[in-house]
Sequence to fold (287 residues):
Amino acid sequence: MKDEGRPPVASFGPSQDDVCALRLAFAGTSMVVEENSNLEAEPGFRALVPRPASGRVFVGHRRVRLSDADPVGRLRLDSVARYLQDVAGDDVFETGWGSPDHFWLVRRTVIQQRRPISIEETVEMTTWSSGTASSSASRRTTLTSERGGLIEAESVWVHLGLELRPERFGGNFFDVYGPSANGRHISPRLELSDLPAGAEREPWPLRYCDLDVLGHVNNAAYWEAIEETAAQKGINLALPLEAALEFRQPIDLEDEVELLHSPEPSGFRLALVASGESRAVAVLRIA
Fold:
């Protein structure tokens, strides 16, 4: 993969108008939360879309380094989320569907760790479009490692135009990403419900390094809350697991954030709350 011609990050940093537009983008893609969704109800691993027999499939590689792993050498979930984000960015950059003309807002990510990946392993990341709608698309990614690690993931992304508002696909998008999706229709609707009133609460301080070029907490940083909560509860994240995280509204550095968590069979649920609103909701279960 060549990076020649990639625009510098500073060339598309956010203005105050951009940040406001981004909040509107979140609001414009929000749907009514559906109770009893598959994300909460199904035990074990749900079926994910398999690799297509035809259509575009992009492959990238990454070596797990010291900053990606936990104290026992396991590739952390926040690192997995960053890998997913990076390989997706490499894919759309190669096809002309990346920045600075197009932006992508993640709405939901499901990560299934079948077998953990370890430090210093080389990871092969295979990704493809698994479904489409008028202005959003789902992306499947398989991570495999040389010693048998296997992580499956699927994310739903909303397509934003130059004004950081949801924008319908045009141009050659369906020519490029339609064949692998094979006619599957997806929705960016929210599926995880709010936490119960009795959920435990604690402050969740933000750091400047949590922010990305759009001026809000990057989606990979939210997964750190799952890692932290699991460690506090003594849950072994080296076991097979499934986690889902949904993003409702962006979190900015000036927000005072609380971390809410409540036990679930074989795991827990959590939310990051600011100004009385759940900005992100997640569920993790040991499979």
